[in-house]
Amino acid sequence: MRNPSLLLTPPPPAPVRLRPERKKDVLNAAAVSTPLSATPYPKVVLPVILTFADQLAMPEFHSAASFSFVHLTDFHFDKHIIPTGAVSELCHRASSSPSPLAPFGTLGCDAPKALADALFEYLRLHVAPQHPSFVLYTGDSARHDADAAVPRDAEEVFASAGIGR
């Protein structure tokens, strides 16, 4: 039998409310960058962005019993895909026995640009006219970094998130 005390976790900490006079100190502290990882790759840092509750607009109230939204996540778009590439090579290199042409991707490989284009065209034509209440984008768009012959760099990660450097 499992020890029930091992299954219990403490509740998350309560959100911290800052007095207006303390915001300046927090924003100054936020200028310090945070490393993404401790890998042997070049150090990548992202700025910390703080938004305070009194700076946010109140969401529009919906009296309807239901609403719709779009959730976008885990695209993993890969500009290095070869449509007939070998899955064992993450579709980055041709193989002696090419896989069938897969313009929208192959199981075992990240997604090609054609899939991204088709996704956003579908959203534009079929979802946008329905006026969803909001779009939830939870990220993770960069391709997987599993091919030593085609390493992923910081510029590619930022570009996948739509962040210019």
TrEMBL record:
Superkingdom of source: Eukaryota
The keyword Hydrolase belongs to this UniProt entry's keyword annotation: yes
Q: Which SUPFAM superfamilies match?
A: Metallo-dependent phosphatases
The record's listing under PANTHER family reads: METALLOPHOS DOMAIN-CONTAINING PROTEIN, SPHINGOMYELIN PHOSPHODIESTERASE
Keywords assigned by UniProt? Glycoprotein, Hydrolase
Lineage here is: Eukaryota, Fungi, Fungi incertae sedis, Chytridiomycota, Chytridiomycota incertae sedis
Recorded protein name is Calcineurin-like phosphoesterase domain-containing protein
List GO molecular-function terms, semicolon-separated. Answer: hydrolase activity
